[in-house]
Amino acid sequence: MMEKREIEKIIIEELPRLLAQSPAFRHQLIGIMAEVFVRKDELKQVLDAIKLLREDFNKRFEEHSNRLEGMSLRLEEHSKRLEEMSLRLEEHSKRLEELSFRLEEHSKRLEEMSLRLEEHSKRLEEMSLRLEEHSNRLEEHSNYIAQLIKRQEEHSERINELMKRQDQGTKRLESAIGGLGARWGIMSEDSFREGLKGILKELGLKVERYIDYDTEGTVFGRPEQIELDIVIKDSITLLAEIKSSISREEIYAFQKKVEFYERKKGIKVTRKAIISPFVDPRARPIAERLNIEVYTSGYDVRI
């Protein structure tokens, strides 16, 4: 019986001759090898699929890199491992071409590589799920930040409103102090009136001065000059008396001034008001009975 080495020697010596002289033998041998070993085009398909998988992963990695900075180092390391894997696959491809006689051993390596690729696909799937989870968490954080911004804006609006109210309160106090000054002779009545008119103008109200002469003495019982303030906003008119303080007698005098104005203008006054920081408590019931509105600050006037 022939030994294994002798058989191998005969095959090595006779195989090239048979391949060259016998087309039938050559085709049969190629068919046997095609059934047993992986063809070059099939291997290229595997490599192309791996390449497409790598490109798809890189694209997804780039889309999520900006949102997941905490994961960037691990993903970069993973990308490097993929690149190393690709280089190793290319190296194996070259070795397959150069070492065709070791196809069986290389097939085992390919099988091992397939298992590693399957494991890699599972890891990619796990990574995708983790990325999706992080995306959801980022969205929740974004919503929470938006709520905080909205609450901050609301607080800012409240602070602005409080500052506005504080400013109005300061001006109310200044108006009241001015009323005291005019009441006790520290400042003139005209100066107080001008200050209060300034507040009304800040509120978008127009203030005009009405001056006429009562020759018949219907208001004060003697001929006297009659002065009233007319507060206007759009088409609404309010006949007013602006003074540092108002007594009971001045309420009656104001009503007579209104009646004098109605006779002169031939109209009916629908709204009339007293604007003064100091109103005699006994004067308020009289004003209410005469349908006279009473405001202690220019900021309270509503038209």
Task: Please outline the helices and strands.
Layout: H1 4-21, H2 23-36, H3 40-65, H4 69-98, H5 103-183, H6 189-202, E1 206-214, E2 224-233, E3 236-242, E4 245-246, H7 248-265, E5 272-275, E6 278-279, H8 283-289, E7 293-295
Parallel strand pairs: 3-5, 4-6, 5-7
Antiparallel strand pairs: 1-2, 2-3
Describe the structure.
This protein is rod-shaped. It has a five-stranded mixed beta sheet with strand order 1-2-3-5-7. It has a two-stranded parallel sheet with strand order 4-6. The chain is α/β, with parallel strands linked by helices. It contains eight helices and seven strands. The model is unreliable at 166-187 (pLDDT under 50). Helix content is 69%, strand content 12%. Strand 2 (224-233) and strand 3 form a beta hairpin. The protein folds into two domains: 4-141, no CATH class; 188-300, Trna Endonuclease, Chain: A, domain 1 (3-Layer(aba) Sandwich).
